[in-house]
Write a structure and sequence with these properties.
Blueprint (H helix, E strand, L loop, with lengths): L12 H18 L13 H4 L4 H18 L18 E4 H18 L1 H7 L11 E4 L10
Parallel strand pairs: 1-2
Helix pairs in contact: 1-3, 4-5
């Protein structure tokens, strides 16, 4: 499971579809609707937030909005849109790690996107994250 901390605009088609599916799985875990993935490290930051269900919905809303901009058809009815936006923190080290991780994936599966992104000077976070100083997050699995 990869719930990217970087903005969804950087993901290729395969990455955007994958994060949508994985985000919906995470939502089901947080709602108690599935027995698998309960202790997945990627869910820790959602579980530790003041409102995990609101946060995962806000996360998925940004994914859905990106898909809509690309004219993809993600089922927006699967989300609760009634939460006010709030943010949690993510470290700069985590953003940098995920950017490099994405570049490695793109180099093989979407070389055009890779070339477009490889020299980006400033990678933006997903809208639910506020970037703070720090190394890679403790929950990251290498």
């Amino acid at each position: 499971m990869r719930l990217w901390s970087i903005a969804p605009k950087y993901l290729d088609t395969k990455g955007l579809v994958a994060v949508w599916r994985e985000g919906l799985l995470a939502k089901h875990v947080l709602e108690g609707k599935t027995k698998g993935y309960k202790n997945h490290p990627q869910l820790n930051r959602f579980k530790q937030s003041k409102n995990p269900l609101a946060l995962i919905n806000l996360y998925l809303i940004a994914i859905c909005q990106e898909a809509t901009q690309r004219t993809y058809h993600f089922d927006a009815s699967k989300l609760n849109w009634d939460f006010p936006l709030f943010q949690i923190t993510v470290t700069k080290g985590q953003i940098d790690y995920e950017y490099q991780h994405l570049l490695k994936k793109l180099e093989h599966r979407d070389h055009k996107k890779y070339l477009h992104l490889k020299n980006m000077p400033n990678i933006l976070p997903h809208p639910i994250f506020k970037v703070i100083k720090g190394a890679i997050e403790d929950w990251e699995v290498f």
